[in-house]
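User: I'm new to structure prediction. If I give you an amino acid sequence, what do you actually give back? Let's try with this one:
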Amino acid sequence: MSPRSKLYTTTPSNPLADAEAGLRHVFVRDLVLPARIGVHTHEKTGPQRIRLNLDLGVREGAVALEDRLENVVCYESVLNRVRAIVATGHVNLVETLAERIAQTCLEDARVRRAVVRIEKLDVFCDAASVGVTIERLNPFG
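Assistant: Good question. You get back a string of structure tokens that encode the predicted 3D arrangement of the chain. For your 141 residues, that looks like this:
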């Protein structure tokens, strides 16, 4: 297991996928987007690269899959919403962006848990990235 993959492991008491609990794990890995983000003056003059990772614990529900897209949380739809949030304009903090992304994911009642990781990739020459990881739960889940 690589050091990066260890970031996404879960504990038995808090799994993203769990057959007994009826949870499916939907994820996005290493999405790199230009974002207008940062508090410093030089960060407000143009976009910078961010990397986003997203893990969703999704309630499988009583509806059979029937090989139909509308019976699952579609990662393409999730990605489209994430891209739209990032494109809306300047945000000062990665924490704010992560909260907005988690909130939009949790608007789908089937999403029970959202883990959002955002990294700024070009901030320090001696660090691969800096950022934040948050976890939010659906209050109705």
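You can read the tokens as a compact description of the fold. Here is one thing that stands out. The chain is about 20% helix and 30% strand.
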